[in-house]
Each structure stands twice: as C-alpha cells, then as structure tokens.
Design brief:
Layout (H helix, E strand, L loop, with lengths): L4 E4 L7 H12 L4 E3 L23 E7 L2 H11 L6 H24 L7 E5 H4 L3 H12 L5 H10 L2 H9 L26 H4 L5 H7 L1 H6 L7
Parallel strand pairs: 1-2, 1-3, 3-4
Helix pairs in contact: 1-5, 2-3
Length: 220
C-alpha cells in the first residue's frame, strides 16, 4: 500500500460505514483510523501528533454527500422530528463541528494528492466504484474473489439486516460497526423527502456557505 495508514474522515451521515468496512477488509483494522476529527501528519516542535500517533505517511479517504442529506441523517438517527428548532440545534451542536474538522483537510492538510474524496452520488449502491477508486488511490490490487465477497458482505441489504437487530443508535455491532438505525433513507437527495417542503429553503440558507464551498449549490 502507498501509505503507512489511512484515515477515514469526513462528516457523519455520508455513507461512511461501507467505506470503513471495505478499508478494514482490504487493509486490516490496524491500518485504518476512523475519525470525524481533523488528523494530519504534521508535528509542531517535533512532538508527537495530538492523536498520540508518531509521524506517519497518511492517506485520507473522505466519503462526501450533500450536506443537507447528512444533516437529515443526523436528525433521523436521534429520532427527532424535522422541525426548524431541531434542524438548527443539530446544525449548531453537531454538523458545524464536524464540518470544521472536514474543512481543515482542504485548508491545512499538507498534501492534497493524499486525499481521496468519494462522491456519494457515484457510490450509492455502487461498491464497484468504491473499489476502483481505492485500488487506484492506495495502489493496491483487489482480486476478483475479494471483489465478489465485498459486494455481498457489505451490501446495503446486509448492513440493513444487521442494523435491524440493534435496539437503538447507541448500540453497535462489534464486527460490522453498524449501529441501530444506521441504514435509513439512503438516497443521495434524501433531504428533500425528510425535510418538509416548507423548510427546504430554510435548510439551504442555513447551510449555504458549506454547500457552495463544496459544490452542492451554485453561488448565484
């Protein structure tokens, strides 16, 4: 593999679990760091990184989804109604923090060539796309046998079955990493059906700067 370790970064609610599962399968869990925080390979004053890691050659994989759908996922998992107050609350207390961490990979990470952003619109129900991108980025070979097993083992249907056995969001299956209520309305534009139509404009205005920054809305 090209890197010492791979960081699975990004924002919660962007289909991270399937990417994480595939990375674990291909590389082993000891080679994958899963976090929604910012992590880099810089060591100010020659000290160990704040994470406790020594300096490593890191690759970063970021699953990315329309941020409105990510926000909808975060609200749904907590069994909250999609009201104006709940939208504002989750945006302020959860989404905005994860967004700042994700944005630091754009502004601070020393080598942008070591970052792979996976577009949710392209990998929704398309694990082959994820495998092709990881194979190229990590400079590894995915065999036909591995591909066949991955397509079956980490399909959305299988992950949904596991999620149904978990009583709530706080419960995690130790093998797959799937939470209860983990796999919900997974369509790329699920925010349009989750949020009431009368709140679409509110959500878009609330997240306008983030949406424009990463190309989910045009700066008209």
């Amino acid at each position: 593999m090209k890197f010492d370790k791979v960081v699975r970064a990004g924002i919660n609610g962007c289909g991270n679990i399937v990417v994480e599962q595939i990375l674990h399968y291909l590389l082993g869990k000891d080679k994958v760091i899963s976090t929604f925080r910012y992590l880099d390979n810089l060591e100010p004053n020659n000290q160990c990184h704040v994470s406790g890691l020594e300096k490593l050659h890191l690759g970063v994989v970021i699953p990315e989804r329309d941020f409105r759908s990510a926000l909808a996922s975060q609200i749904r998992k907590r069994k909250l109604s999609p009201t104006r107050a709940n939208i504002q609350h989750i945006y302020n207390t959860l989404f905005s923090i994860m967004y700042r961490n994700r944005h630091q990979y754009t502004t601070r990470f020393p080598n942008q060539d070591n970052i792979l952003v996976l577009d949710y619109r392209l990998y929704f129900d398309n694990i082959d796309y994820i495998l092709d991108e990881l194979q190229r980025f990590l400079e590894i070979t995915v065999t036909a046998e591995q591909r066949k097993e991955i397509l079956w083992r980490f399909s959305r249907e299988n992950n949904k079955k596991i999620a149904r056995t978990m009583p709530n969001w706080q419960t995690v299956d130790p093998v797959s990493g799937v939470h209860g209520m983990h796999i919900g309305t997974s369509q790329p534009d699920s925010w349009k059906t989750f949020f009431p139509p009368e709140l679409h404009e509110f959500v878009t205005k609330l997240m306008r700067s983030e949406l424009i920054e990463y190309g989910w809305e045009k700066n008209d």
